[in-house]
Amino acid sequence: MNLFEEGLKFNLSELVELLIQVGLKVLVLLIGYAIVKPLGRKAIETAINRLSTQRKLSEGRNKTLQKLSVNIFSYALIFILVMMLFSAVGIEIGPLLAGAGIVGLAIGFGAQGLVSDIVTGFFILLERQVEVDDYVTAGGYDGIVEEVGIRTTRIRSFDGTLNFIPNRNISGVANHSRGNMRALVDIGIGYDENIDEAMAVLQKVALDFQQDERFKEGPDVLGVQSLGSSDVVIRILGKTENMEQWAVERDLRKAMKEALDAAGIEIPFPHQVYVHKNEE
């Protein structure tokens, strides 16, 4: 195809034909990408769900594998699309890949952080340190894991902030979602109150909560935990299902406050005394 006629004279018809040909190729590639991406995503999710059912994987592990697989699929699909677009506009892929290898070697020393992210992410996934929907503390952040990727991990804090943490910054992980969790409530009573009577009232409430399905062990009244400046602190302890400890603690405090009020046992609270001095 010759875009010029007789030296430098511009051939408009050849240019229009070239643009149409290239434009059609690009359009077909983009349409194909738009079709393949959701189909591939759906196929991956279906395959992971089937695998999870066969091997009885947890829901968190299932979501982790789905997000990771879709992530890798998206990267691979974008790379293939870019290569095909280069080919569609007439750019030779072979020399480009060779040049990319040389350039990649040159910038490799500056991409050590990226390599570290990928290696660390691989071992986080391999050792199952965290999974989607786990409550963790990692990289200086705590919250619910939304995605574990090959480069970054996403943690949603309880105030709604979404934190993107490079995997190389995760030097240690505290996973709060493995096994049963502790529910702990401290209740203070006045020094003038009968401690044994108060403990009996609280133990009755604890026995009622032992029928709650959220509790895996207890709760039980342990006894006097400390002597404060204005109260005697009694501790109640139990073990609950994952992520249920906070709701259980709130319910325990409410029920124990109501039980102590019904028994006429005072829970001390700050008082203010105003002294008015009359000057004659």
Automatic annotation (TrEMBL):
* InterPro entries assigned to the protein according to its UniProt record, in alphabetical order: LSM_dom_sf, MS_channel_1st, MS_channel_C, MscS_beta-dom_sf, MscS_channel_2nd, MscS_channel_C_sf, MscS_channel_TM-2, YbiO_bact
Q: Which SUPFAM superfamilies match?
A: Mechanosensitive channel protein MscS (YggB), C-terminal domain, Mechanosensitive channel protein MscS (YggB), transmembrane region, Sm-like ribonucleoproteins
- One GO molecular-function entry: mechanosensitive monoatomic ion channel activity
Where does this protein reside within or beyond the cell?
Cell membrane
Which UniProt keyword terms apply here?
A: Cell membrane, Membrane, Transmembrane, Transmembrane helix
Primary location recorded for the protein, binned into one broad class = membrane
Q: GO CC annotations?
A: plasma membrane
Membrane topology is: Multi-pass membrane protein
- Claim: Transmembrane is one of the keywords in the record: yes
Provide an example Pfam family for this protein. MS_channel_2nd
Source domain of life: Bacteria
The question of whether Transmembrane is a record keyword is answered with: yes
Q: Where are the transmembrane segments?
A: 18-36, 72-91, 97-126
**All residue ranges annotated as the Mechanosensitive ion channel transmembrane helices 2/3 domain in the record:** 71-112
List, for all copies, the residue spans of the domain called Mechanosensitive ion channel MscS C-terminal. 185-267
Domain Mechanosensitive ion channel MscS residue range list? 114-178
Q: Which family does it belong to?
A: Belongs to the MscS (TC 1.A.23) family.
Provide the function of this protein. Answer: May play a role in resistance to osmotic downshock.
Q: Which PANTHER family match?
A: MODERATE CONDUCTANCE MECHANOSENSITIVE CHANNEL YBIO
The entry's protein name is Mechanosensitive ion channel
Query: From which organism does this entry originate?
Result: Halobacillus litoralis
Question: What does the record give as the organism's lineage?
Answer: Bacteria, Bacillati, Bacillota, Bacilli, Bacillales
